[in-house]
Fold these 2 entries.
Entry 1:
Amino acid sequence: MRKPLISGNWKMHHNHFEAIQTIQRLAYALSSSDYENVDVSVHAPFTDLRSLQTVIEVDGIPISLGAQHCHWEDKGAFTGEVSPEMLAKLNVSLVIVGHSERRHIFGESNEDINRKVRAVIAKEMTPILCVGETTEEREDGRTLEVVEKQLEDGLKEVKTSDVASMVIAYEPVWAIGTGKNATPEDAQEVCKGIRAKVENAWKSASEQIRIQYGGSVKGINAPDLMKQKDIDGLLVGGASLDPDEFSRIIKYRLLD
Ligand code: PGA
């Protein structure tokens, strides 16, 4: 049985004071039964991580600390970058890798993304590898082909046991921040394809690997998305900035 993982991607929002307030309000809105049903992570900007680590540890909040990206080397002359080793020291446990904004705005290649996936695993953190097609690719009927290639390249030389404990986030590029989410059936179709691809290449990992859907998730659409057989969680951008709305998503069972 895969435990759902609901992750908030704050992107470039919330300074460290706002981050402290947000996580405290989120923790206040959640109860132990929520954490029994769902794993929760928050992916904050780098400048917030040290403050959030303190609040999480001092207050004993069962939310996993996450980052939004990193470099693949431990250290070196890479101005502006942060290493997986530095994140691990802050007790970061999950790192988003290959988000479409990193791929499209900052030009990250599948090769860079694969290096990052392996570097994150090497520091005993869990990568959330993002995959997803653009509007044109969907209209050309190439969704699965694109997603399968992103998986193949992103997971090159990753051991089956490491693939099994990873997270894949299916985020159609056209659904991110647009208010146009994929229908639960469309999202399920692609997530099923992702699991089939994992089964094909990494066999036993396919039963354990968690697959999230992301793209304009809100309290109102979370229950139907979470009902889908191959959707094991959600990667939430805009709606995760507001602790009330994010807690509604985490409590999706109650909204149904
Ligand atoms: P959104 O972002 O929920 O604001 O569409 C999702 C994401 O980019 O992870």
Entry 2:
Amino acid sequence: MSEKIRVLISEEEVCEKIRQVAAEISRDYEGKEVHLLCVLKGGVFFTCELAKRLTVPVSLDFMSVSSYGDETKSSGVVRIVKDLDQPLADKDVIIVEDIVDSGRTLSYLIDILKKRNPRSIRLCTLLDKPDRRVKMVHVDYCCFRIPDEFVVGYGLDYAQKYRNLPYIGVVEFEEDL
Ligand code: IMP
Ligand code: MG
């Protein structure tokens, strides 16, 4: 089997949309500072591109979580692999994610983070697959709603590969000849 990547959203489309979402966030947070929480590893490319385009003051922190469950289905119980460095108390927090799929990981994560008393907490995701939702999660900012297909690029991986692609693509498998 060999893999081929079909472009779903081009680099230009991704850049333009991130610019629009950054402008929206900058308007909504005018006069405030935003504390961006990047969920590693998938959220890292999106976080950088978004942060560069915000016109309000920005601080950044990173966390890494892993979901208990098998490879295809997250259980919704999240293990914090790398916790945040800074407290969230009195901060206006935006969680920056690559994709919201079943919603299990994020609904659990948001519950944990709310207990740390941020002033506000919102969710910004590059991609949303609403057809797959099992747990209700309120998405405040979303760049693209996509159909139920497995995608890679812009931080998203398949077996740790393709995170570096500058566009969003669908993995297609072909029988070797
Ligand atoms: P869930 O919302 O708890 O089901 O899990 C979301 C996580 O699953 C994301 O943060 C990704 O790491 C991973 N994921 C879901 N869909 C895809 C996809 O299409 N490509 C790559 N990773 C995905
Ligand atoms: Mg993720």
